[in-house]
Specification:
Shape of chain A: elongated
Number of strands of chain A: 0
Oligomer: homodimer
Helix content of chain A: over 70%
Structural class of chain A: mainly alpha
Largest interface: A-B, 48 and 47 residues
Radius of gyration of chain A: 20 Å
Distance between the termini of chain A: 34 Å
DNA sequence: CAAGAACCGTACCGTACGGTACTTTCAGGG
DNA sequence: CCCTGAAAGTACCGTACGGTACGGTTCTTG
């Protein structure tokens, strides 16, 4: 899933290492454990360097989100011709990837952080998270269902609306439950993904796409 | 840590007033603004009383959730005979109510609080929120779709699964977006609710229920 | 009316955090 | 070989919070 970053790498290797340690602290201690002294200690750097590099604590948090987002690189789908079966498969793969990403410790920790911060920083971190984290995934899904439409397998007027429907079918209230700490959320992501795709195709699939679908239960 | 209490008006009127002020502080200042001194000042009570009544800060937070949950009383649906139209209408009403509840300031503030606390308190507040806040809504929806099934308007094997589908169709990623501070989430809840119910009925409605539904767009 | 509990207001304590300043270490470059 | 700059390590400061203690005031109750 995660690929080496090719971009001009906003931060130096040393800084990336520091951000890595900061993420580690955040993941297994929550925001309260993410103190500037703690980060400095864990990363073997001085607090003065932290403030020089990131400005202040908020700058550090933003940098952590940017760094994490830069690690996750979603390969862009190229416009291969889709069949009914391959559309279904790609949708299932996307669903599983989405659930996996949302359930990841780092993702959960960063979302918790941004949510906790949102009331007092004007949603600065939240915007950042949505902008740099979600947009990649959104684009991938949009490209996929757009290909499905062009191949005559999907039918919809508003691609955004169709995607939101798909998202809701996949995630339901799982994300919020996980954010709240509910551990027994997804018992079987594969089954969940399959169900969501089946429902999505029943809603937006053309006859061509539904040809080899299982009958209504 | 405060003791578990029983239902009949868990707290005294005076304590309820204090909790009301605490909620108000939380809503427009976030968790950081919710200091014990601040609550005492806003509610014209002493810190000593706070600690006497609620044990410690965590006890106060728990009490706030319990108090808020006790205010929201969802009337139980009785088993009136459902028609295709009335099922549709009740589903739409439920959808709108759900969106309205999730978008409420107090709900958002408490969810943010519980999410921010979840890493370090073992999801105690999160569990409380799900248990006392969501269960009411869940029961109401389950009763509704169960009535729909008994009336021959809905078809499903697993009621839980059907409900989760409905929930996902209604909420999609709106809840998390709002928690992150995205303001332009729901532009038109009525339209959103209508769309969700339409999709839900296409997935789980029988021919009887679909008789007077609009054609596929 | 008197005794006692409940409670308010405030002052206080220890701690821990964000942020700054200073000294030391070390690598590279003329 | 020394000069310079970056960064580590440490000590420090102001502040603000959670929690406690105490004197004064109101409310209850017999």
């Amino acid at each position: 899933m995660s690929v080496e970053n090719l971009e001009p790498s906003e931060f130096s290797p040393r800084q990336n290492a520091v951000l890595e340690q900061a993420l580690r602290l955040l993941v297994d201690g929550g925001e309260k454990a993410l103190t500037t002294s703690g980060v400095a200690r864990a990363a073997n750097c001085s607090k003065e360097s932290l403030y020089k590099w990131f400005g202040d604590r908020d700058g550090l948090l933003s940098a952590m989100i940017a760094y994490q987002a830069s690690k996750v690189r979603t390969f862009e789908r190229n416009g291969e011709r889709l069949t009914s079966a391959s559309l279904h498969d790609h949708l299932v793969i996307f669903s599983r990837d989405l659930l996996e990403v949302l359930a990841g410790d780092v993702s959960l920790a960063l979302n918790r952080l941004a949510i906790g911060q949102s009331p007092r920083d004007g949603s600065k971190l939240g915007k950042l998270l949505l902008e740099r984290g979600r947009k990649q995934i959104d684009r991938r899904a949009m490209a996929l269902i757009d290909s499905g439409k062009r191949a005559g397998l999907l039918r919809f007027n508003d691609a955004d609306e169709a995607y939101h429907t798909l998202y809701g079918l996949i995630v339901s209230d799982l994300h919020v439950r996980m954010l709240l700490g509910d551990t027994m959320g997804v018992t079987d992501t594969a089954r969940q993904a399959e169900k969501a795709v089946t429902a999505f195709l029943r809603l937006y699939g053309t006859e061509k796409a539904l040809a080899d679908m299982p009958a209504v239960v």
